[in-house]
Amino acid sequence: MAPQTGSTEKEAKPISAFPQHLTWEEIKIHNGRGQSQQQWLVIDRNVYDVSTFSKLHPGGSRVISHYAGQDATDAFVAFHSDKALVRKYLKSLLIGELAPDQPSFESNKKKSLLEDFRELRCTIEKMGLLKPSYTFFFMIFLHLLVLDIASWLMIWYFGISLVPFLVGMAFFTTAQIQMGWFQHDLGHCSVFRKPKWNRLLQIIVINVLKGLPASWWNHLHNQHHAKPNCFRKDPDLNMHPLLFSLGKTLSVELGKKKKKFMPYNYQHKYFICEYFCFLGVL
After folding, report:
1. Which residues form the Cytochrome b5 heme-binding domain (predicted)?
2. What number is the average pLDDT over the span 157-185?
3. The CATH number of the domain where 100 resides is what?
């Protein structure tokens, strides 16, 4: 009797482990804290284990770890321009998906707020407001160089008497403030299509012209946009009146007491004062 090859091959096929249906209760446990050191997150209802990958994440381990045990769909969309490329790396991290009876996000999030935000982003993209103008950014960079050079020429040519010093300081302060915002757009890869060109010009602006490391700024600012105004996760909250809070103890104590010495909704009013104070110290 001839062997039944068809049925044998069918029985020999391994049973796929996917999709593994998971609940939010199971996912929330894997937040990298407590007994479970694993880090799971959700993107478009797919569940990924980023426990090992977080250390290799190009944007830094903290940014992706802040979403452990949570839905990271909106952050994923906002941080990655080439989503097709990133999804190739996600395939090896996939461990399952949300069960059909589970919502697409945590219970503590408002559905209407998320829907409004996503609709707003789609509207902005359709209007082309996220497409950069190369002419505009070129003129910005050019006027920054002019102001910076003019500030040094003022001191070199007229000396360090009071009036030339004040005029030079005004030029220099204006240039430094504008450089901060310009490198901010470069840090978000919002100027050029290719990230490497944004990174290169950012290094020129913040490293060379401002004297600050781009990697340090990107590390902190990415966390800020990943978890804006979330205590322990947003580095911008670790501040104290006039001085930075050094160390974890002081910042934690201020966060628990909910001190409001420097409310974030008034940042635009005291940023320029910080620059003048900083230049006065120098």
Report:
1. 19-99
2. 92
3. 3.10.120.10
Domain region containing 61: 21-126
Same domain for 117 and 92, yes or no, is yes
Identify whether residues 142 and 121 lie together within a single domain: no
CA atoms within 13 A on the CB side of 74: 20
Q: Is the pTM of this model over 0.90?
A: no
Mode of pairing for the β-strands spanning 46-49 and 94-98: antiparallel
Sheet holding 40-43, edge to edge: 21-22, 94-98, 46-49, 40-43
Claim to verify: residue 154 and residue 46 sit in the same structural domain: no
**How far apart are alpha carbons 11 and 4 in whole angstroms?**
11
Query: Token pair 């450089």 is at which residue?
Result: 179
Contact 75, 37 (CB under 8 A): no
> Which one, of 189, 169, 183, lies nearest residue 281 by Cα?
169
Does one domain contain both 205 and 178? yes
Q: Is the pLDDT of residue 179 over 80?
A: yes
